[in-house]
Predict the structure.
Amino acid sequence: MKTLLPLLLLALFSTPSAHALTEKEMNDVLAAIRVVESNNNPNAVGDSGNAIGVYQIWRVYHQDAVEFSKIGGEYRDCFDPDYADKVVRAYMKRYATEKRLGRKVTQRDIAVMHNGGPRAVWAKGKKKENLDRYWAKVKMELNK
């Protein structure tokens, strides 16, 4: 039995569901974020012209995602919902990881990182309150 326990633990913690969101969970949270950010409007421009498209992507967010991935493209391509989705997924692939967080990634992590940046999950004070409000909006969309 002693030799089986490590193998059982390895099998339990090696399954994909123990490490990452399912594709459905990711798709659901991204759909909710799109509604919260722009009401799914691909032509949306917000934050005094600094955020564009369905996800309201900032230039620095786009640059970060493109540098890390091989998706290429220009910032203005974020007006295309399919391209914007690739940008967000590349950003999350870089920052929303179990290795980086030290635990399983949640839909909340995806939402707050999208809104507050890669360190948002550790936010404190006023920033945390703002991110909690943002998460509440995303969660409300998820529950519809």
About this structure: The mean pLDDT is 88. Residues 51 and 57 are 5 Å apart (CA to CA). The longest strand covers residues 45-46. The longest helix spans residues 125-142.
